[in-house]
Amino acid sequence: MSTKWLDLPAKPIDQAMLAAAWDRESQLTKPPGSLGCLEAIAVRLAAMQGTQQPGLERVRITVFAADHGIADEGVSAFPQAVTGQMIANFAHGGAAISVLAHQLGASLEVVDVGSKADCAAMPGVIVSKAGAGTANFRHQPAMRESQLASALQTGRDAVARAVKDGAQLFIGGEMGIANTSAASAVACALLGVSASAMVGPGTGLDQAGVAHKAKVIDEALALHQPALTSPLQILRHVGGFEIAALCGAYVSSAQAGLPVLVDGFIASSAALLALRIRPDAADWLFFGHASAEPGYVHLMQALNARPLVNLDMRLGEGSGAAVALPILRLAAALHGQMATFAEAGVSAGSDLKP
Amino acid sequence: MSTKWLDLPAKPIDQAMLAAAWDRESQLTKPPGSLGCLEAIAVRLAAMQGTQQPGLERVRITVFAADHGIADEGVSAFPQAVTGQMIANFAHGGAAISVLAHQLGASLEVVDVGSKADCAAMPGVIVSKAGAGTANFRHQPAMRESQLASALQTGRDAVARAVKDGAQLFIGGEMGIANTSAASAVACALLGVSASAMVGPGTGLDQAGVAHKAKVIDEALALHQPALTSPLQILRHVGGFEIAALCGAYVSSAQAGLPVLVDGFIASSAALLALRIRPDAADWLFFGHASAEPGYVHLMQALNARPLVNLDMRLGEGSGAAVALPILRLAAALHGQMATFAEAGVSAGSDLKP
After folding, report:
1. CB contact under 8 A, A204 and B32
2. Residues B197, B199, B204, CA angle at the centre, nearest 5°?
3. Is B242 an annotated catalytic residue?
4. B69 and B32 both lie in a single domain
5. Structural domain tally of chain B?
6. Does residue B321 share a domain with residue B193?
7. How much is the ipTM here?
8. Which of A19, A116, B183, B303 has the greatest CB tally within 10 Å of its CB?
9. A194 shares its domain with A264
10. pLDDT digits (tens, 9 = 90+) for A127-173
11. Cβ contacts (< 8 Å) between B319 and chain A: which residues?
């Protein structure tokens, strides 16, 4: 399996529509700028979709689940068996992202990209394993080259299915006990920041647990340092299968011209990987929910991005992006459906002096 | 018309359900606290509605529109005629709140509580005028006692209609050229803060315009100071009809046990009035969207509240609350529909040591 497809360029957004959409924003019956962030969101969506009536009715949420050898180091508050249990919970509709997808009318896919669980018998779970969990990256590279390529391709395949099904937006979620450790290690290596400045409680560690996690990651980064020569090698040595799948999905979405709503900390580490591989993918990414992980601020600075909401969520699964989705939908509707000053016979304030 | 009904207590929320709902939150298949603010929102909704399956399908949005004598002082970037033009735009479905209500499946009411426009012929507009605009409060009280009582009652009537129609949540919006000046004056008087610390650009003033607005408000507050002896007298002397209607609606919602989602700066000044009149109404209020008006931070401190989102919106109309509504809906759905650890056969992390 090759990773050559990562070299293909992102689809350019429609620059003429971008300008036309800003022009329309200035004519809508509201003071200029008064819809705040919603205006730039709508204009970007118009330029992505090439229409003044952008729409996000059809949304695909794909949750990538995988296990992590680094869990052996005691870096998570949950036992590794929870990964497989949660895959079953996603499939049965009981997890947070299941409920959110249902409420939002979004289609939900669950992909086992490398858990230790046997998910073949779980109805609705797509099994595309790069391995039965990564190796413990405190002692060896998390994955082999072939596993990296497989996990990236699994993300690409998910986007291909989304495009085929007519999706207008892609949300990638993740589940994997210990995956904040892998995501933190990736972010540390990409940004040149030590783990103590990056690492937080994940989904439930106490202070001693956080310090232990930072120590494990710093030791692993020191071990692999000579080999961390590119984004892909960072991903291979200290990443995870679901992080690779998200990275592949984001690159592939940009290549296909499918807008993306990025979730929290782990998804954002995958997004930074994607943009280090393909900087031109940046135009296609929105960021949904801020993370309380200390490293998140560093990621947002590096990504030059601002998340839409901060509701103190720290669950993953794509849940933060899902909660932010209605904001994108409402922004699109306002742009396409509000009356212009001329249509409504309203005096435009910007022409007048108080 | 009497304001005696303001003395009736707010409905108590269901304390037993509050405790039961927190217990259920701890059993759902997620790390404890990982849904952040959504957990407290859902628990409050459960206690308000007395059920572990709270729902917000039926939402009433009522926009109260009115004119302001203080507009004569040049405190707005828009001419006063825009109030009436926007009432027509609401009714025709072209305004931001019209589009949002439609997208959200919320029913929208437009109430002329005191504009200078003749709205009798506008289909769908409820005319309940306390006057043809307030008096210019730089020189005289904004309204007479009877007008205050009428505007408060208009808000109460709107809530009565919402309750009759089976609404599960009330959103109040406002439209009125120069109404940030009235709201700022109310907030200054309630909080004992000078206008220069409170006043901002509203929907479009430049720096000189903001300074002029602050000066106008400070002069008005000095003029009326001896009479500003109660929340109601503050509202009467320097408030506005739509602010009074919102205040009446909030008090009335709490009395009826109807949850409220408060919009931005102007709505929050009305909410502070409501809570100074009836502190026990606090349990029934959610706050939707942060305002960039400098005074907003003071209001939130006094209200001990935190808005759900900050998307740099500054439009009013109830639009910020509308954009935040899906967060409440999703919080309610997660609480009612997620599986428990026992139901899903997932190991609960809080029982385990890493």
Report:
1. yes
2. 150
3. no
4. no
5. 2
6. yes
7. 0.96
8. B183
9. yes
10. 999 999 999 999 999 999 999 999 999 999 999 999 999 999 999 99
11. 35
